[in-house]
Specification:
The chain contains 4 helices and no strands. By secondary structure, it is mainly alpha-helical. α1 packs across α4.
């Protein structure tokens, strides 16, 4: 994971799926969940972090388009390009979810 904030939510999702099949993994779910929620709040704690994350997501999407269209680049073509685009979209969706949840918590703390 390049950006640890919202990406930990994906790790948590994977652990939850594994914990359904392997009960011994349950002990790892709570610590990862606490850290993922903390990282989610930190990722939208300041406008600078939000801006940086949005720019990183847009840069991934732009790089994916460039890689998809330019086969002369190392690993050029749509297999690599589509993975970069998907990564950028996932980052932006998770960031939006983090922002939405963070806004709810901030509103509850104020009210």
């Amino acid at each position: 994971l390049v950006l640890p904030g919202p990406g930990l939510l994906l790790v948590l999702g994977g652990l939850l799926i594994l914990a359904n099949q392997f009960p011994s993994i349950d002990k790892y779910v709570d610590p990862v969940e606490k850290r993922a929620m903390q990282a989610m709040e930190e990722s939208v704690a300041s406008p600078l972090r939000i801006t940086g994350s949005v720019l990183a997501g847009l840069a991934l999407i732009a790089a994916g388009i460039v890689w998809g269209l330019n086969k002369q680049l190392w690993l050029g073509g749509w297999p690599t390009g589509s993975n970069l685009i998907l990564s950028g979209v996932v980052l932006l969706v998770l960031l939006g979810d983090s922002y939405r949840r963070g806004g709810e918590k901030a509103g509850a703390a104020r009210g």
